[in-house]
Design goal:
Mean pLDDT: 96
CATH architecture: Alpha-Beta Barrel
CATH superfamily: Alanine racemase
Shape: globular
Low-confidence stretches: none
Radius of gyration: 17 Å
Number of helices: 9
Oligomer: single chain
Bound molecules: pyridoxal-5'-phosphate
Order of helices and strands: HEHEHEHEHEHEHEHEH
Structural class: alpha/beta
Length: 231
């Protein structure tokens, strides 16, 4: 099943849109199946689980005597990241999609400095109706990018957003439109960032069709590929 859905999505998505397979709460064997079907980018939302899967892959390489087994897999982090968990996540991911506070951004920059690395991030605005303290206002995002030289160990690669959890397509469209507007404003205010700032990560299993209309470059799809999650 996993391979069938991945093939279907690959046929359906335009070449400009990358498929991120959200493997959270699914076992490593599910990731291997998706990898066999050609999927390379996987996303996790909990540091402990990401680390366990990274370790599992290392074990498998030893067991199989194939040090290069799945060596071109890429991990993205898409969950809330506490600053005391950075070392469980940042060494292993190619992109942190869910940077949602200044405190986290500062900590990532400091980690990059201490480890001689530059960390790729997306900034997450808060637009959905759910009441949460996570996520930036549009103004905060512009302010960060205006002062991007204060974060020499961070590459700002774009925006990640989530629509309100609802069946009401009007609400989802309004949210995607608001996220897209922030993305466009960033590009027009800060053209010098455009070498890196390219990603608009919107769209999940239930709303990726709509996200395509709003110019998504990265869809994050979990349950459609791997089935329902048992939490
Ligand atoms: C879980 C999750 C997804 C995937 O959701 P599905 O509805 O299973 O496709 C996408 N983005 C984020 C940030 C998530 O936490």
């Amino acid at each position: 099943m996993i391979d069938i859905v991945i093939n279907k999505l690959n046929r359906e998505l335009p070449a400009t849109v990358r498929l991120v397979a959200v493997s959270k709460f699914h076992p490593f064997e599910a990731i291997e199946k998706a990898y066999s079907a050609g999927q390379r980018i996987f996303a996790e939302s909990r540091p402990q689980e990401l680390l366990a899967k990274v370790k599992r892959l290392e074990e498998l390489r030893l067991e199989r005597g194939e040090p290069d087994y799945m060596s071109d897999i890429q991990w993205h982090f898409i969950g809330h990241l506490q600053t005391n968990k950075l070392k469980m996540v940042l060494p292993f991911v190619s992109l942190v999609q869910s940077v949602d506070s200044l405190r986290l951004l500062d900590a990532i920059n400091n980690w990059g400095k201490a480890n001689g690395k530059r960390v790729n991030v997306l900034l997450e605005p808060h637009v959905a109706a759910e009441d949460t303290k996570q996520g930036f206002s549009a103004e905060e995002i512009y302010s960060i990018l205006r002062n991007s030289s204060e974060y020499p160990h961070v590459s700002f690669c774009g925006i990640m957003g989530m629509a309100t959890f609802t069946d009401d397509e009007t609400v989802i469209r309004a949210d995607f439109s608001a996220i897209r507007a922030i993305y466009d404003e960033c590009l027009s205010q800060f053209p010098s960032l455009s070498a890196y700032f390219k990603e608009l990560s919107i769209g999940m299993s239930d709303d990726y069709h709509i996200a395509l209309e709003y110019g998504t470059t990265m869809v994050r799809i979990g349950s459609m590929i791997f089935g329902v999650r048992s939490y």
